[in-house]
Amino acid sequence: MIKVSSQPLRALGGDTVVYLVRQPESTAPACPDRQVSIYLEEVFSLGDFSGKADEKLLFYLPAASRGKGKSKSVRFLVVGLGSEDPDSELFRKSGGEIAKAVARLKVGKLRIQMIEEESGAHLAESAKALAEGLVLGTYRFDKYKGKESINGEEPKGIQEIIIHSSRAQALKKVVAHGEFAAMAVCAARDMANEPGNFWTPSDFARMGRELAEKHGLACKIIEKAAMKKMGMGGVIGVTQGSAQPPKMVVLEYRSSGRKAPTLLLVGKGITFDSGGISLKPGAGMEDMKYDMCGGAAVMAVMQAVAELKPGGVNVVGIVPATENLPGPEALKPGDVITHYNGKTVEVINTDAEGRLILADALAYGVDKFKPTAVVDIATLTGAAIIGLGHHRTALLSNDDTLAERLLAIGDNCGEPCWRLPLGEDYKKQLKSEIADLKNIGGREAGTITAAIFLQQFVGDTRWAHLDIAGTAWNFTEKSYIPKGPSGVGVRTLIELIMNWE
């Protein structure tokens, strides 16, 4: 738990103190602790530290040099913020840098001095981002490693973090918000890191029930028999090659407002994707355990929503979960399936399976909950990686206002998106001679045609699609983003919900 305190920093003790400093034009960075300032002046004169962004300086002051009434700490870390006015992302990165710097040290109690000259709103956003970076930067997944693999001992981690500010009372709520959001991201990373044999559709269902029991959410698990009865041909078709039964997890959060609008979130939950009969190449297929990152994001967002309890908006999260394997009863290229809303689809490629399960979930969610808006999130197309690399999430939407909000929130969260167009010309690529649609439209504009496919299942509802194929793992290297799953989209969706009007 990250705490906020207005007590004098030197009175708090602790084994490590962190100061965030700006970079002056030609002098040493200023620090409220005179002892530390003297040290910085000496180091600056040697040209070793000036306070540039992401620059770090770790040093120790022995007890004899600290003097009576001075800092009780012995280990000091100074982190530079650069010369420009820092934005939220810089504080988030600084939090990650702090976490990385102390990870190899036996730090138990970490104390951090906030920059005090920030305006009220800016200070709050900075403190929130710092909290996010601290939590996200400490993330690690070593569940399946023995002690020998992690340097022969169990990592203890930081036991206590206190952010110091004279305006502590105003920061407590936003810091807690940042911590809850970051913990949700870590939960999404944990789900994605689990191997395919330890995270199956049944585990999504188990987690849904656990979240409902712990936080008072409503939870419904739609089983295979019910899917067949409801006409969910997309999920049923994709799951035919797997021995694992499919699950559709439906979680509901109801705010206090009886007439509050409803936001529907849908996340792709393919717990392992071999491509089915249209088999993927063997090289790199182990990464296809990550094909459920969209579903993980939705589950994590529902966890955060249950903890943060936003007012004025109801939230429904749906995760259609299955494996996509080439078993003896697997869906074949050329097969025709019928979705929940009655649309028929000719399956040209069984490796374009994510859109098939999302189609049923979207159609069901729109029909059942009559949402004001719907956002789906999925590792949907390799074309998104070709077009945008691993730096931006592809965003497509039928509503300009919703799209603009997601773009702005994504930029502020450090999860940038890039909007791609929709249109009837692209829909022509999905024309089938024997069904309402084909499930692919060829190599050209693959991310767009995949979104156009999904659009056929939301009707006139305001809708946005986030294709995280390029950002769900191998995301832009940052201090607070580890190798492997990033948990992208979680904080963006939380901010959308918390600021819903």
Protein model, in words:
With 501 residues, the protein is an alpha/beta fold. The protein contains 15 helices and 18 strands. The strands form three sheets. Strands 7, 8, 9, 10, 11, 14, 15, 16 and 18 form a nine-stranded mixed sheet that branches. A six-stranded mixed sheet has the order 1-6-5-2-4-3. Helix 4 links the parallel strand 5 (109-113) and strand 6 (160-164). The longest helix is centred in the middle third of the chain and has 26 residues, at 168-193. The protein is elongated, with a radius of gyration of 25 Å. It starts with a strand and ends with a helix.
- Briefly, what CATH class of the largest domain? Alpha Beta
Largest sheet descriptor: 9 strands, mixed
The domain tally reads: 2
Give the overall form: elongated
Give me the secondary-structure category. Answer: alpha/beta
Counting H and I runs of at least 4 residues, what is the number of helices? 15
From the alpha carbons, calculate the radius of gyration and give it in angstroms: 25 Å
Terminal CA distance: 30 Å
* Low-pLDDT residue intervals, each spanning 5 or more residues: none
Helicity range: 25-40%
